[in-house]
Histone deacetylase (Dolichospermum compactum NIES-806), 306 residues
Amino acid sequence: MLQVIYSEEFLDHKTGIYHPEKPARLTAIVDALKTASFAEKITWKLPTPVLLKPSLMSWIENVHPTTYINKVKNIAASGGGYLDGDTPISPRSYDVALLAVSAWLDGVDIVLNTADKSFVLARPPGHHAVIDTGMGFCLFSNAAISAFYALQQPEIKRVAILDWDVHHGNGTEAIVETHSEIAYVSLHQYPAYPGTGKTSQQGSHHNVLNLPVPPGSDITIYQPLWERKILPFLTDFQPDLLIVSAGYDANANDPLAGVNLQPEDFGLFTEYCLGITQKIMFGLEGGYDLPSLAESVIATIQPCIG
Ligand SMILES: [Zn+2]
């Protein structure tokens, strides 16, 4: 079974009506899940409120310096502003970003403490946030924070982060690349924003696998990369938990990139993941064409429901 972690508070991170990373992304997915054929097999959960998770700040501070965390807090408190040209902070963005991290940690707890999988429907996304600043629509590194959080459990020795967002997760990679107990795998368009993710970037412990694909790539390019590169790499790594940075901007209809995947292709990706481990959580990253975004989340979840 699968638990979806979602709160309407995630709609309160306001980015402006012309910004692609908008609240309607979440409501499109929620509407699709409520009417999906498997709707009754999903359990909906609210994220743990920030005030009820005393350790939350320490997990964020484990990755980001307090100077940066306070910068986000202060920009929000002063009425909002921008971290960079495309990364706005609205008055509630700081609180919402903390709640998003809480939701991702809940996603870890569900997978580690039950037989269920989890899908975290939160925003803002996180994979571009580097140690000392957010960028590219992202404020805090949800996936990396979650990986370190999972590793606190003695029985969790290795965590893999698989990032199928069309953009390279430069932030996630920068944070985890020196940690041998965390693997980072990214499939991304190259060249594209943010310009990182070359094959030669392999991490300090050969724990990073970057698989750039050219614009125009479709499933016939992705499938061999899964079968010849990702599956051997992750099978060898043997993760106790697989965190999927689930972005859906590699869809053909997506306005922000030029890769030509179809929503059903993400169902195949989930099938591949299930061949590695049953301990899987998904967390939303990008994806900006609302119909294909919603269809892709449905396709991702379907194989988990059985
Ligand atoms: Zn993206």
Remarks:
- The domain at 2-304 is CATH 3.40.800.20 (Arginase; Chain A).
